[in-house]
């Protein structure tokens, strides 16, 4: 087959294909047109049925209007509109299909339908108009009849008979629903004539009645018109559409036969041309296959070779005569540069002369040479090739040229090099890491162990491999339950899942040594993702877990005594509370506070105090049961939890502890001390609220034990009056602390008037503002403050506030007196505090006076004298308060360098009536003046007392009869929000 013959056959194939396509398109057109006609036919039949239903609906609507079931014309108008719309669509569908071939009968029938619809539309409009007029007439006539009756009533002639007859007549008239027969209509007209003669003798007077009767006549005359219109509508809605359906179907059948014939013709033509095309294509394919078979095979072979390999052909001198694209790309030279160039162009210098000499000897001998050669590209980059050099032999068996087929193995050589380096790095890493690494196969035989693993196993790699199985070296067991866990290694290999054994694992070696370890087991896979074994990474946790246990013990135990600490104690206390609630078991908490412990610390130092606590811890431990918990919860505070213990047994234990501690003598160097223990007992039962409440109860009971003489015990019970009083004091502590922190104290002053011309004297008094705004007298909180060591803070607060706000009183050149408690007199730093405050606020010291009570001064005589002397050197004044109440007042007075002497109000209050009291006041005043002191009489509550003290010669009078207590600071002043303590 020549190329020209192939072209001729190709043209014939194209011509047959064109005819086939045209025929196919014609067949498709016939099918599409037929489908459209069928769709129009379906829609036509649906529209015919819809037109029938709409006609029926119109007839129903008309009857419903006549019977009163339907009151408006919306539904009738809607059905009328739908009828004309559907009918128009039906006519368009018929003309779309049968416009050219349609029969005269169909067109005539369509014309009749159209005329009938036009007439129906006209009649419907007339019917709705007339019907609406009659309906309106019904409402008009009824209202008009009612108005006639009202009009008659206005002129005083109420004719009920007329109104009743007319109303009944109107109701009867419309009850016929516009279907009056001629006889009934004639009868109603006669009745109207009779009423006119009977009820209208005077037309001028009854004009409204006459007008109503005329309207009735008109309605009766119009009723036949509505009836005729209705009957015509009912007749028009009965149009025979069945005849149109039969004519349409008959005509449609002839059209369908025509399209069916056309479809058959085009189908067979299409089939014929398709066979022709297929036959021509087959013949063309067979001839072209013969022509291109060999060329295709050669191209495929060349393509495959070029895709896989670098190919070049050279002569016996090594000059290149052919180079494929891969050779050009790999070398970096163009094909023009390579052709006729020698292969030495690519020499990398990586191989020796002997290497190339062996290559050429092999090729020139007519043999195939294979090997790896490193070449250098034009850009200087090295690339490796796996080369096969095949010589071409002539008829005599001598090579005349050779072909070199090369495969680029640069990537493989790079990977091999990287693998070697990675292996070396991995070996260095495995030898350097701190974790033991062991590699095993599926049978648990050891493949590799790093040095850490060798030390952990106690064997070198060769010895371990000689033993074979991993489990022959050691077992893995659970530290808590001592059960084996080695099976998890096999499970990891079987399931192929990574496993982590991180807690409570022990490595049990053959020699009996155990190591706490964390183990990670990871399966290994081959290139086909099959599991080949596993790698175990084990981290030695022996030292860390030992430290953790030690830290855990230290976290829950007191470092000094080895007893449980407060954290552990509170944890066990909460557990006992939970047990009481769940099981109804009673327990007891013992709160122990050591008596006179501070004496040992202050006398011999903290080292002796620590030793005392250690010895007392052993004594306390010996007095409780083994199951009880002893804890140190503070400096010299201990607590005992007596589990499942009745209160009677707890009392015995408390007694034994008190007795044993009292008998104990602590010797340190040359001193011997006796210690006591005050114990508070609190029940732990189902009624206990929480741990904090139980602790508070025991603490309160412990303080009660101290108050009752120390070295004893007290049991907390509900509704205990002593405890309630103690609890009230504890609440005062909280309120006082809050008052100090939030400045809830307020300062007031009471003036002591001068009776001898001296400067005014003001005594500063403290009050506390409650949350409800009321002021609390100092007598309510001072006892609690003194009892619990808060008076020093309160005194410092008062001193700081008075001095800070000096602008409000210093310009008056008066003396301001501040009360100082006995506790503050024992404070060695208070005097320095006052001096610093005087300097800070720039206050004249000679205007500041400190009042100390006689009893406090005598109880702290040495401290009081030191305090007074130090502040008098700074310029301050002093007053001795409540003088005369003590038994040795005059004896101590000479030792106290005060400036004012305040006569106890006990003597002043009744001095007018009691001569002895008057003599005491006079005596104290005389002694004070002899010693150069100013005297102040307290509790001057009346004019008589004032006159009496003036007569005696007292310098100042103070009391409610002289001056009221007023705020020190003016309204709106804000006190200092911070406490100044040094």
Could you characterize the architecture of this molecule?
This protein has 982 residues and is an alpha+beta fold. The chain has 5 domains: 135-235, no CATH class; 309-414, PAS domain (Beta-Lactamase, 2-Layer Sandwich); 433-547, 2-Layer Sandwich (Beta-Lactamase); 557-727, Alpha-Beta Plaits (2-Layer Sandwich), CATH 3.30.70; 732-966, TIM Barrel. The strands form 5 sheets. It has an 8-stranded mixed β-barrel with strand order 19-20-22-23-24-25-26-27, surrounded by 4 helices. Strands 7-6-11-10-9-8 form a 6-stranded antiparallel beta sheet, sandwiched between helices. It has a 5-stranded antiparallel beta sheet with strand order 2-1-5-4-3, sandwiched between helices. A hairpin with a 6-residue loop joins strand 19 (745-754) and strand 20. Helix 1 runs antiparallel to helix 7 (241-308), helix 3 (104-154) crosses helix 7 and helix 23 packs parallel to helix 25 (830-841). The chain starts with a helix and ends in a 15-residue tail after the last strand. Mean pLDDT is 77; it is low at 153-158 and 972-982.
The CATH architecture classification of the largest domain is: Alpha-Beta Barrel
Report the mean per-residue pLDDT as an integer. 77
| CATH homology superfamily name of the largest domain | EAL domain
Determine the strand fraction and express it as a percent band: 15-25%
The structural class is alpha+beta
- How many angstroms does the end-to-end distance come to? 124 Å
Low-confidence stretches are: 153-158, 972-982
